[in-house]
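Weekly sync, protein design subgroup
Attendees: M.S., D.O., the rotation student, P.L. (late)

Item 1: inverse folding check
M.S. brought a backbone from last month's batch and wanted to see whether the design step gives back something sensible before we order anything. D.O. pointed out we never logged the input encoding, so this time it goes straight into the notes. Structure tokens as presented (158 positions):
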């Protein structure tokens, strides 16, 4: 800013004392100090705003570079997947084509379709030993609702 030394500030103060007078000088000095503080804050705000705009521009450049790089990676991955899919489809069509049968190559038959085993759970339950059912708490006999109530009724209540 301005380069004021001690001698220049003293000279300005002496001239202000003579021109303004000793009564008004403290009030003028306070006003000048307040105005200088406001000016410094305004300059600091402008600098901060300029710095923010520069940082924003840099961030936008970085964002665009990152998006470009991501797009390039996506395209390369998509190309690789497409080429692998084409190669797989070509191989599959070569294997399943009629020319493979004509050439005399053997192709394994497809696996049989899944069939449910149709297990009989009653038979399976009947094959479990009684001692294991008793230990596991499995009911061995069918009881009616009234029989169960009578069996589990607390003593003393009838």
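Designed sequence read out in the meeting:
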């Amino acid at each position: 800013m301005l380069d004021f030394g001690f001698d220049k500030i003293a000279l300005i103060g002496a001239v202000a004392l003579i021109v303004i007078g000793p009564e008004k000088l403290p009030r003028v000095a306070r006003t000048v100090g307040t105005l200088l503080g406001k000016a410094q804050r305004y300059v600091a705000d402008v600098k901060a705003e300029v710095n923010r705009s520069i940082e924003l521009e840099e961030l936008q450049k970085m964002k665009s570079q990152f998006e470009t790089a991501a797009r390039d990676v996506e395209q390369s991955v998509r190309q690789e997947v497409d080429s692998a899919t084409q190669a797989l489809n070509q191989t599959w069509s070569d294997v399943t084509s009629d020319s493979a049968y004509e050439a005399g190559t053997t192709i394994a038959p497809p696996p049989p379709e899944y069939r449910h085993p149709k297990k009989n759970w009653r038979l399976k339950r009947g094959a479990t030993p009684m001692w294991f059912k008793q230990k596991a708490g499995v009911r061995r006999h069918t009881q009616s609702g009234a029989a169960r109530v009578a069996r589990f009724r607390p003593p003393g209540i009838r």
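Discussion: The mean pLDDT is 83. The radius of gyration is 48 Å.
Action: P.L. to compare against the previous round before Friday.
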